Amino acid sequence: MAVLAWADGSSSTLSFDGLPRLPSAVFVTADGDVWTGQRAWQAGGEQPSSFIPVPRRPADGDQTVGTTRVDALALAAAPLRRVAAEAERIVGGPVRDVRLVVPAGWGPRRRTWMRQAAHRAGLAQPRLVEAPVAVAEHLLATGVQLRVGTFIVVCDVGLGAEVTVLRRGAAGFEVLATLSDPAAGGNAVDLGLTAALTAGRDLPLDAMGDWAAETIRTAKKTLGTHPAVAVPLAGQAPVIATSSMLDQAAQPVVRRVAELVGKTTAAAELSVSDLAGIYCVGGSAHLPHLATVVAEHTGIVPTVVSDPEFVAARGAADAGAAGIGPPVAVEVPVPPVRRAVAIAVPGFASLALIGQCLLTAERNGAFTVHYWVRLNWGEFTMAAVFALLACLGAGTVLGSLIATRSPTPSTRTEGGKVSVGILAAVSLGTAIAGLYAVVASQYFGLPVGRFLGWALWPITPLAVIAVAMAVVAARQWRAPHGGWSALLAAPTGSIFAAALGMGLIQYSLTADRWPELVLWIEIAGRVGGLLLGVGIVMALVTPLMFRLILSAPIAVISAAIVSGQASRIFGVSYAVAVTGWWAARLWTRIIRPATNDPAVVAPTADAGPPSGGG
């Protein structure tokens, strides 16, 4: 089901082949072409082996359909491409704002797959709206009174069942808990109805052929408004299905949905008395006795929303319309002490190093044509690295500050705030590093090129990784364990050790060597090399045992080679070590996290097709 929303707040349902919905089914021809809509349905009756009723299951690589190998992602993209073409035909141009409804229980893998299917279909980068949130937004848009702080339950009964508890907050609806069961929806009813139609022989739908299975689903919908219907079965005479058969097949499903309501409410740490209402949506929301059984289990009579199949798609449009009004105030988080330290340590370290670097530089030949300056380029580079780390540590705070002034709805989302904050931090950190180069160039009266090279090139890989994190945050593929603030915090222990070490090295290289101080100056330089080596190791590895093992040789080597030339190596080495530290966090906490998604979902939530459409 697709809805086209206009700027004036109105919306219209797209139609396909004269119907207000486009079947998800596709038909694959012998040439590998993918047909959709009524054309696919009609061809499926003649060649059931090439007919796929639900191509919305994430799959990798190619898939065999009949005798043809096709890209599994192309099958899912075909209906979306048809929707995009119809929308563009009506609008007269491309549609830039695209929203796709997904179940709340979908994890990062399936959400990424859905975005890939949309991209393959030629759609703009979509915003994924969780089905229960879309339903709640539609309820508000249609006049249902839901005060801030109230709790509701949304039962999405489609091919499977997904029950979600939501809380209305000041900025929108929040998913508190969601449980799903692919075996508690329309598929299970179809199996029961099939068993009744085949005289008790419990045949799986796959054994009847996909086209015949879709015929059973159509008969089930017809029985919702008619007492009986003739159902054609493959290789058999038509069989009469009655409403009593549907009642019997639906009994286990409606009982299971009622159980899910109770379990989901308990998972949200609420009682039934805390709920402001229970709302049923989805293609199977009109199952016989669903409202009665849920009322018996909870004491609350559920409301079957009008046009339950379309409510999620319309709610997604309503969710976007909310952004047209005045910006919602966003609370700017005040960082705790530990978070403030993560920002302050690299910030003060950067200022200390750049100050020492400029004040202790040696000018030579100031009044000749051979004027040159001896500068600790390693210290200069580390000052630029620390400036970028300090700005990144404040990324989430910067994002919240920007969001309070931004009229763009996407900026006020959690992912939008983090993404904008990271990009702002990268821009600010790079600008500060460039400013260091310009100030040093003017201070010494030398060309700015070399200063820019030592300030910007070492931090470029780190900036690229940070931009990659901003993209992940914007597309909301995955939230890192511990939150974005913890991920963006720099390793303060490593920064402190490395900054102190470089400061001692620079002191040993530039201090006046009075006879009574030569020994202490030399010791200070070696200690600085030790600390800098330890700081590099602390950035490279996290486990304490590995740090102890690597610190000994690297610290000894760095202490032994302390010199003006070696300080350049130290500075670049530390920039590389910090870049590796960030790359490892990007990989282990976002791309390949070791922990599962913390959302409350049933173990089978990612095993079957989604329960609703949009």
Structural notes for this entry:
It is a single chain. The protein is built from 21 helices and 18 strands. The chain has helices at residues 37-46, 72-91, 108-120, 131-141, 186-197, 205-208, 210-222, 243-267, 290-298, 311-321, 337-359, 377-393, 395-405, 414-444, 449-456, 460-475, 484-488, 492-510, 518-540, 544-560, 564-591, and strands at residues 3-5, 11-13, 26-28, 34-36, 51-52, 62-65, 68-71, 99-102, 127-130, 151-157, 161-169, 172-181, 228-231, 239-242, 275-281, 303-304, 362-364, 372-374. The strands form seven sheets. Strands 12-11-10-15-16 form a five-stranded mixed β-sheet, with helices on both faces. A three-stranded antiparallel β-sheet has the order 4-3-5, with helices on both faces. The chain has a two-stranded antiparallel ribbon with strand order 1-2. Strand 10 (151-157) and strand 11 (161-169) form a beta hairpin. The termini are close together. The relative contact order is 0.10. Residues 202-210, 320-335 and 595-614 have low confidence and may be disordered.
Layout of SSEs?
Layout lengths: L2 E3 L5 E3 L12 E3 L5 E3 H10 L4 E2 L9 E4 L2 E4 H20 L7 E4 L5 H13 L6 E4 H11 L9 E7 L3 E9 L2 E10 L4 H12 L7 H4 L1 H13 L5 E4 L7 E4 H25 L7 E7 L8 H9 L4 E2 L6 H11 L15 H23 L2 E3 L7 E3 L2 H17 L1 H11 L8 H31 L4 H8 L3 H16 L8 H5 L3 H19 L7 H23 L3 H17 L3 H28 L23
Helix pairs in contact: 2-3, 4-10, 5-7, 5-8, 8-9, 11-12, 11-18, 12-14, 12-18, 12-21, 13-14, 14-15, 14-16, 16-21, 18-19, 18-21, 19-20, 19-21
